[in-house]
Structure formats: C-alpha cells, structure tokens
C-alpha cells in the first residue's frame, strides 16, 4: 500500500471516528475503530507489505528477520559492511534486505547500475531525507545536505578551493602538526625505562589529533594544536560532539533523530535556550551536549569568518594571501560579486556551515584511513619495510616533501590506495529513489532506499579476484583488466556527489605516513590482536587501535 493510500485511510478513519463521537458520543466505538486501524496499519507495515505486496519482494536476499527490526540487529551488531558482503556472496549482485519497521533496502553491485544511481541520474537518486537531516545537525547544512541545482551551484563555487594548484600551495601547512606528532612520540618513547622496546600508543587517538590540527589549519587557517593543548575551544567542542555519536550514544542518537520533525526542532533557537531540560532524562542528555557543542562551533566559525572578511584581499595572485579553503571561498565570493552583481554568492551562513562540514566530513575519515593503514602495515612487515626504503632517502633530503614529490612515491601510493580499498573509512552510504524506474532490469518503486555498499564493491571478488579481501599493495602495480577508477573502488564514491576532499585526503595521508614510517616501526600491540572496526558512519577502530611503536634504529 502506498503512503498516500495509507494516509488517506488514516484521514477517513479519523473523520469517521470524529463523526461517531460527534453524532453519538460513542467514545468506545471511536476508540475501537481507531485502534483497529492502528493495528491494521502495523500489520500492513510489518507483515502484509514486506511478505505479500512489495513489488520487489521476489528479489533475492536474507530472510526478513525480526518482525519489527528486520535485519537491523545483524547490521548494527556486525562489522560495518560485512553483513551486506555476506548477502552479496550468497544472493548475487542484486539484494533486497528488510530493515526496521519493514523498510526495504536494495543493493545493486553491477557498475552500470551504480553508474545510473550515482552518476548519470544522480538528481533522481539523492541522499535520503533522514540522512541529510542527521548529517545537517552533526556536519553542517553544507555540501553534504544540499541536492539538485543548489548542490550544482555550491559545488561549482567550491571546486577551485580543492583544485590541485590550491592543494599544492597548501601541502606545506601539514608539516607543523606532523613534526609536532613525531617529536611527541619520540620524546614519549625516549622517556620509557627501555626505550629500545618502544611504547604502546593508541594510534587512532594520535591520528585523530594530527588530522584535526591539519584540517583546522588548511580548511580555516585556525590553529588548534590539539596535540599539545587538549583544551582548545574548538577541539573540545568538537570532541564532545564526536563522543556523543559513539558507542551506545550512537544508537540512541539515531533512534531520536529519525523521529519526524526532531531535527528541525533541534535547529531552533528555542531548543538551544532550553537545552538543560534534556539533562533531566538520561536517554535525552546527549541532545544537550549536541546543542551546546554545535552552538560553540558556530560561534567560533562566525569569528573565523569575520576575520577572513576583514583580511582577505580580492587579488588571488597575492602570494601572501591566506591559502586555507575558507579564505579562498571568501576571496572567490568577493571577486565574483565585483565582476557580476548577479553571480551566485554563498551566504555568510552557508560559508560558516562549511566549517562543520569540513570537520564532519574531513577529519574522522582521514584519521581512520591513517589508523587502518598503520594497522595493515603493522601486520605486513614486508610492505612496511619497502615503504621505509622508499620514503627515507626523500625525507633525509627534505623533511617537508611537496605535493609532487609525495605524489611520485610509487609504493606509498600503492599502500594508501590498497588500504582505502580494503578498509574504507566510510564503508556504506545511502541513496533514495525519487522516481520509479528500471535499474539492472528491476522495476524500483519511488521511495526505495539503496545501500551504496562501498566496502562490498571495493572487495568484490568478481572484480578484484579471489584475494579481493586481502591487503596486497602490489596489485596497484598491475591492476585487473576490468578495473575502472569510477566503479571498481567507491571509497570516495563517484559522480557529482563524490568526495570533494578526495585529493586533499590522499595527499594528507601520504604526508603523515611518509614521516611516520621514516621515523618509526609499527607492530601489533599484542599477539592475536584483531582489527575492530565499528559499525558507525565512519568506520573507526573500536579499541582506538593500540600499536607498539619503536624508533627506527638506523636511518637507511
Ligand atoms: C580518507 C578520507 C575521506 C573519505 C574516505 C571520504 C569519503 C567520502 C564519501 C564516501 C563521500 C560521499 C558521501 C555520500 O555521498 O553519501 C564524501 C563526500 C564529501 N566529502 Fe569526503 N572523504 C574523505 C575526506 C574528506 C575531506 C578531507 C574533506 C574536506 C576537507 C571531505 C569533504 C567532503 C564533502 C564536502 C563531501 C560532500 C560532497 C558533495 O556531496 O558534493 N572529505 N566523502
């Protein structure tokens, strides 16, 4: 039954119940009719539709699962992307799975199907509303939440700030935080009783600090120095926001956010002013933290923006001009407005929202990518040693290699691409159908939600061969014949919504890794250690990834 028929049924039932009440004051009959309709709707949603009426009910897939939660428990309790990978192995390249309250999700694996959803017909397959609402609250109402024409204009305006020349000018800004990280790790190891044995570090935490410092510097020209100063205002507010979305809080957070109208309500000034009310209920307390952190981050963004507006001359050729992304956006806006009064101009508010978007989209993702790469190298000493052989001579000549030098390191490229393939920091995303159309020969009704199964595509044996799930950097020296850069690896997805920060993230990862591997050796922290990816939006290590780190004994 379509949503229109359902709401029509509800409307006429309540009118009928109202009439009975009015005409006969027969409260019990009205209640009976209402509860009967409610029971029918629940029965329809949970049983009738998924088992007997859904037009895609014949597609292969796992059993419908729990009558209320469907396959949701398997997804939330499993490792990100792994249940979906098992379904594809068992049922083939088109899979139907039922989530909570009977909501269906489809997986399409073939490149042509994904191309249609992500590239050629992207306007008809936007990010679903629930996803945009949640992203908006936690990662700003910026590029991640706009769609259609608004997205086209915003993206066109922002692309130059992420272009290769802009990134080449920025690479040097990575090195203050990187050097600070190297010095901190070195001095902590040196202060151990047996420095030669190295020290165990929670590597995810350190990667999170260094990437926060880098993104704040390169995206807004703002110095957090979270490696030394955990009490920096922005770092603190942002850390609270992240903690609020982890562990038990994440499930609670999602459960609250999907209630219709909640995200809109939480954006209101009223909700912020009365945030302390939420602390009276244990399960709602994280909302107070969310509102507080968001407010603080927005205040800081407003200050940063005001400074940029004062400081940014229009002349983009000015070599002294600030090179961070936000300064580039402010300068581009001034220049466009001076050239053409009617040009698209991003509002102050939209520019401010990008602070959250860059933090939300660019920080944890890069930190996870780095942490997983260190994990994979700790478990593959041969690849690690080969990488050290490659980076050491370069760093001995110049400890701050530029964009080109980093890009030319062949084995570093293989290691980073392979790590992002097997353990993609964003393992999955979603799209929804805005129209009814055929995809891979299946008639997909409007309103259908799709899993875009990034991790599954990246490790699909049909494309990558029998060892698809293994970390083997040398495969990038001899790629499979069928390899297609926009469909064989979806780590940054493809099409107009593909990650705008892709090249920035890759070059940043390379700069951090080259310096780390030239200075330290990495090993698992204990025998039998296994990777523990979370099932969250960004696939971080649950255990913060302890690794044993030793100083490189002798520079080669
Ligand atoms: C290894 C690091 C990163 C990974 C794996 C990653 C992955 C992704 C993915 C999968 C998407 C698409 C999400 C979707 O459509 O549902 C995306 C979008 C996006 N990413 Fe990244 N990202 C990374 C780093 C960055 C960085 C450093 C920035 C910016 C400073 C950034 C900014 C964005 C933005 C703004 C979007 C939305 C693009 C649009 O819709 O036009 N990302 N990213």
Q: Gist?
A:
This protein is of the alpha+beta class and 556 residues long. The protein has helices spanning 3-24, 27-53, 72-77, 82-91, 111-120, 129-139, 148-158, 164-170, 175-190, 203-220, 233-244, 247-257, 262-266, 269-273, 285-311, 325-339, 348-362, 364-378, 381-397, 403-407, 410-422, 454-458, 461-464, 502-519; strands at 94-98, 104-108, 199-202, 429-432, 437-439, 442-444, 449-452, 520-524, 546-551. Residues 127, 143-144, 155, 219, 357-358, 361-362, 365-366, 369, 424-426, 429, 491-493, 497, 499-501, 504-505 line the site of protoporphyrin IX containing FE.
Q: Give average pLDDT, whole number.
A: 87
Which ligands appear in the coordinates? Answer: protoporphyrin IX containing FE
Profile the largest sheet: 4 strands, mixed
State the helix count. 24
The shape is: globular
Low-confidence stretches: none
- Estimated share of beta-strand residues: 5-15%
Radius of gyration: 26 Å
The percent of residues in helical segments reads 40-55%
How does the helix and strand content classify structurally? alpha+beta
- Compute the separation of the termini in Å: 69 Å
Strand order of the largest sheet: 1-2-7-4
Give a verbal description of the structure.
Keywords: Heme, Iron, Membrane, Metal-binding, Monooxygenase, Oxidoreductase, Transmembrane, Transmembrane helix. It is found in: Membrane. InterPro entries: Cyt_P450, Cyt_P450_E_grp-I, Cyt_P450_sf, Cytochrome_P450_monoxygenase. The structure is a single chain. The strands form 3 sheets. The chain has a 4-stranded mixed sheet. Helix 9 runs parallel beside helix 24 and helix 18 packs across helix 21. The protein is an alpha+beta fold. It is built from 24 helices and 9 strands. 40% of the residues are buried. The structure holds protoporphyrin IX containing FE. The site of protoporphyrin IX containing FE has 25 residues, from helix 17, helix 18 and helix 24.
């Amino acid at each position: 039954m379509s949503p229109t028929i359902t709401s029509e049924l509800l409307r006429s039932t309540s009118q009928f119940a109202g009439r009975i009440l009015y005409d006969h004051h027969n409260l019990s009959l009205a209640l009976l009719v209402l509860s009967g309709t409610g029971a029918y709707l629940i029965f329809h949603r949970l049983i009738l539709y998924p088992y007997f009426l859904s037009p895609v009910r014949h597609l292969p897939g796992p059993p419908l699962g729990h009558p209320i939660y469907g396959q949701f428990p398997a997804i939330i309790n499993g490792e990100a992307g792994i249940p979906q990978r098992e379904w594809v192995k068992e049922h083939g390249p088109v899979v139907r799975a039922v989530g909570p309250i009977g909501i269906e999700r489809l997986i399409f694996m073939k490149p042509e199907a994904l191309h249609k959803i992500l590239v050629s017909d992207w306007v008809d397959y936007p990010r679903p509303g629930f996803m945009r609402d949640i992203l908006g609250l936690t990662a700003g109402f910026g590029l991640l939440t706009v769609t259609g024409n608004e997205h086209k204009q915003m993206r066109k305006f922002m692309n130059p700030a992420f272009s290769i020349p802009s990134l080449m000018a920025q690479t040097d800004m990575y090195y203050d935080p990187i050097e600070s990280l190297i010095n901190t790790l070195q001095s902590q190891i040196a202060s151990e009783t047996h420095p030669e044995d190295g020290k165990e570090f929670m590597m995810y935490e350190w990667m999170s600090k260094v990437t926060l410092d880098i993104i704040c510097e390169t995206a807004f020209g703002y110095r957090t120095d979270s490696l030394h100063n955990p009490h920096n205002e922005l770092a603190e507010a942002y850390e609270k926001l992240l903690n609020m979305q982890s562990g038990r809080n994440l499930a609670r957070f999602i459960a609250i956010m999907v209630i219709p109208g909640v995200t809109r309500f939480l954006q209101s000034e009223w909700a912020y002013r009365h945030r302390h009310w939420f602390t009276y209920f244990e399960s709602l307390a994280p909302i107070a933290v969310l509102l507080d952190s968001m407010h603080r981050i927005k205040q800081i963004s407003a200050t940063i923006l005001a400074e940029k507006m004062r400081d940014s001359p229009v002349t983009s050729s000015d070599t002294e001009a600030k090179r961070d992304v936000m300064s580039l956006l402010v300068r581009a806006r001034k220049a466009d407005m001076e050239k053409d009064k009617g040009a698209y101009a991003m509002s102050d508010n939209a520019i401010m929202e990008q602070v959250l978007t860059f933090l939300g989209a660019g920080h944890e993702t890069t930190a996870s990518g780095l942490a997983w790469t260190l994990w994979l190298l700790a478990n593959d000493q041969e690849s690690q040693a080969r990488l050290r052989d490659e980076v050491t001579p370069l760093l001995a000549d110049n400890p701050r290699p530029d964009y080109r030098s980093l890009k030319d390191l062949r084995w570093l490229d293989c290691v980073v691409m392979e790590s992002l393939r097997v353990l993609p920091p964003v393992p999955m995303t979603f799209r929804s159908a805005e129209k009814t159309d055929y995809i891979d020969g299946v008639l997909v009704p409007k309103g259908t939600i799709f899993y875009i199964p990034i991790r599954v595509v990246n490790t699909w044996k049909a494309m990558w061969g029998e060892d698809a799930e293994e970390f083997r950097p040398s495969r990038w020296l001899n790629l499979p014949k069928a390899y297609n850069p926009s469909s064989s690896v979806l780590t940054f997805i493809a099409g107009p919504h593909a990650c705008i920060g892709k090249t920035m993230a890759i070059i940043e990862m390379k700069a951090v890794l080259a310096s780390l591997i030239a200075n330290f050796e990495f090993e698992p922290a204990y025998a039998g250690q296994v990777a523990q990816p979370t099932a969250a939006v960004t696939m971080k290590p649950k255990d913060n990834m302890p690794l044993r780190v030793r100083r490189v004994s002798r520079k080669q």
